[in-house]
Design goal:
With 135 residues, the chain is mostly helical. The protein has one domain. Helix 1 runs antiparallel to helix 3. The model has no long low-confidence stretch (mean pLDDT 85).
Length: 135
Amino acid sequence: MKIGEIKELKRAIVDLHKFCNGGAIRERKGDIDKYGTGFNVDGRRKMSGSHTIYYDTHYGYYGNSSSYSQIELPSSTHEIFWKCFDEYLNEHQDEILNAVCKKMQLRLSKETDTIKEEIDHLTTLMNELDDIKAE
């Protein structure tokens, strides 16, 4: 990850945290008469693009390359399953988004640690070169 991407990640974490903790408009305020937040509510204004969600369950046997589904809901239930899934996501959106924010913060920390390790390694190499020049 590049420094610019790390800065963007940090800004996204701050923005997401603010949004989840009082920054989202969820009720009529002053002249605001249109508002809303939620998963799969209005595809015109996506916070972070779109992402397909599916739930995978499978199993297979040692020595056999085949795998099988652990459960498959009847196609007649798919629509209601996903509607209920979306309802659950929306009922818990702050909890979910705050959890995602924490995971993003962990990723940011790992990325900055990796860059610091690379810098330390390059500094060591530079010092070795300086020692060779001094000889």
